[in-house]
Structure formats: structure tokens, C-alpha cells
Write a structure and sequence with these properties.
It is a single chain. The chain has 283 residues and is an alpha+beta fold. It folds into two domains: 94 residues, 2-Layer Sandwich (Alpha-Beta Plaits); 137 residues, Aminopeptidase (3-Layer(aba) Sandwich), CATH 3.40.630.70. It is 42% helix and 17% strand. It has ten helices and ten strands. It has a seven-stranded mixed beta sheet, sandwiched between helices. A three-stranded antiparallel beta sheet has the order 1-3-2. Strand 8, helix 9 and strand 9 form a beta-alpha-beta unit.
């Protein structure tokens, strides 16, 4: 046995149950994530093209000049703090300004205040939806089938972004937002879920609410994945699940409409929730 071999395996001698070389290095993980989230020029132009086509609605076209003006101003001057959701514009509805900082702590603060980050064309922006679509989680949901949690969240983000680009182009996430959401998973704030039916998604734990940011799969399969998520949320004593940003995939799902003001009061009334940590991994 060579000296080099013995030196390279010293760490394994003191790490019970861990095989040398079985864990990918941080550099390799970053490289794989970059490859997964990157776009070719053709893919980028296709995403932007779908977004521009979605702006064909006359109501959106009327609001476009104001959106462009504020985005240019905010990106040039910068914002000192997160915007107040109560000051969101009526045209475009819910628009609050450019988002220059997508660091994990900033994103978590924003979502806990009722803001939402969007980036269909590239530059990110803050939005405060006028209405939220939520579902209360009954205790009976704990009997739902289990899913796999917190396994390969990068793929869940990528698949959810692709699904959003097809069904709701203005909700599609650019690579910069995909990376930002992946960093939330790295910190333990975001959680992903998947079933054996090639369906799943990901979202954020905000107090006792869980905000689903992405969902993928055929509608029936996605509904099953959501049921499994609600089961896990019931076991963890969450109060409700926010489906505002994925409802287009499940239009027949029963939801309660909550105003922006009521949603903000709900967040204030339920500040205690999951600590930043991985959820258990089930097979």
C-alpha cells in the first residue's frame, strides 16, 4: 500500500459510515448548479419572448411605461430598504420596485413582509399581490401519502421554472432568481418535495405559513404532490399553505382568497415557525 493512498484515506479512518470520495465538493456542487440554471442565448430569448407576448394584454401595456421608468430609476439610484407592501402600485398591480439585493436574509425578510420577487426578463423586482390564494391545513392532512423532502432541490427549482415558463411566462424565474432560491435552500429556509409520479415543487417556511414558489408535473400528479406536502405541513403544525404563485397549474383546487392586508396580519400573528434546517429525508 502506498504512502499516498494511506494519507488520502486518513479522514475516512475517523469518519464512521462515510466512504471517502462519496460526498461532492462545494466546487463541484457550484459547478453543477451553474450548469443546471444557465441558459443558452436561444433559451434566454425564448423566455423573454414568451414574457413579452404575455404583455399583449392592453391593461399590462398601459402599465409598462411606469414599470420601465421605476425599474430604471431604482437600478440607477438603488433602494435603501425593502418597499412597503401597502405602497404597491395599482398599475402594474402590486408592483413595488426593483430588487437589487437577493441575499438570503433579504429575501426571507421580504417574504415575511408579504413581498414576492419576480424576474421574468432578467432584472428582479418586488411585488405585493393584492390577493393571496391560501388553503388552511386540517389535522387530517397528516394521513396523506409521504413524499421525498429536501432531496435535489436544485432540480426542483429548475423543473418548476420550466413549468412556469410554459403556463405563466411572467412568473418564470431567470437564472439569477433560481440561484437566489437555491441559496435559500442552502441556508435551510427553502424546502423541496417530490413524489414518484414525476411531480413536486419547492417553497419557503414563513412562520406557520408555507409559500409554494414552484410546482411541476401533470395536474393530477402535481395535486398528489401537493397533498403529500400538506401532510408534512400538518405533521409540522403549519397553519396554511400559500398557492398564489402556482394556482395556474391546479385551477380547480379549492382555495380561500385573502386580501393583502389580511395576509400581512396573518404573518404578524404567526411569527414562530420552522427553524432553518433540513426536513427529514424519506425514501
Amino acid at each position: 500500500m502506498s504512502v499516498a493512498f494511506r494519507v488520502n484515506n486518513i479522514a475516512g479512518m475517523f469518519s464512521e459510515g462515510i466512504e471517502s470520495g462519496s460526498e461532492p465538493t462545494p466546487l463541484r456542487l457550484r459547478s453543477e448548479r451553474e450548469k443546471l440554471f444557465s441558459e443558452t442565448l436561444v433559451q434566454r430569448m425564448a423566455r423573454i419572448g414568451r414574457g413579452l407576448a404575455a404583455l399583449g394584454d392592453p391593461r399590462r401595456l398601459v402599465a409598462l411605461p411606469a414599470y420601465v421608468e421605476i425599474m430604471l430609476r431604482d437600478r440607477a439610484v438603488g433602494a435603501a430598504a425593502l418597499p412597503d407592501p401597502a405602497s404597491a402600485m395599482t398599475r402594474p398591480e402590486g408592483f413595488c420596485g426593483a430588487a437589487s439585493d437577493l441575499a438570503p436574509t433579504t429575501l426571507m425578510q421580504a417574504y415575511s413582509q408579504g413581498l414576492h420577487a419576480r424576474a421574468p426578463f432578467g432584472p428582479a423586482s418586488w411585488w405585493a399581490p393584492v390577493r393571496r390564494l391560501v388553503r388552511a391545513i386540517p389535522a387530517s392532512a397528516a394521513a396523506a401519502p409521504e413524499a421525498r423532502f429536501d432531496l435535489d432541490c436544485d432540480h426542483a427549482i429548475a423543473l418548476s421554472a420550466e413549468a412556469a415558463a410554459r403556463r405563466a411566462p411572467l412568473d418564470a424565474a431567470s437564472p439569477i432568481l433560481r440561484h437566489a432560491h437555491a441559496r435559500l435552500f442552502d441556508r435551510g429556509y427553502a424546502h423541496c418535495f417530490a413524489t414518484s409520479a414525476a411531480a413536486g415543487g419547492y417553497g419557503l417556511a414563513i412562520g406557520r405559513a408555507f409559500v409554494v414558489l414552484g410546482l411541476y408535473g401533470e395536474p393530477a400528479d402535481a395535486a398528489g404532490a401537493l397533498a403529500a406536502l400538506e401532510g408534512e405541513l400538518a405533521r409540522r403544525r403549519f397553519a396554511l399553505v400559500d398557492l398564489t404563485f402556482v394556482r395556474a397549474l391546479l385551477p380547480d383546487l379549492a382555495c380561500e382568497t385573502m386580501s393583502r392586508e389580511a395576509y400581512d396580519r396573518m404573518l404578524d400573528a404567526n411569527p414562530d415557525g420552522e427553524r432553518a434546517a433540513r426536513w427529514r429525508k424519506t425514501a
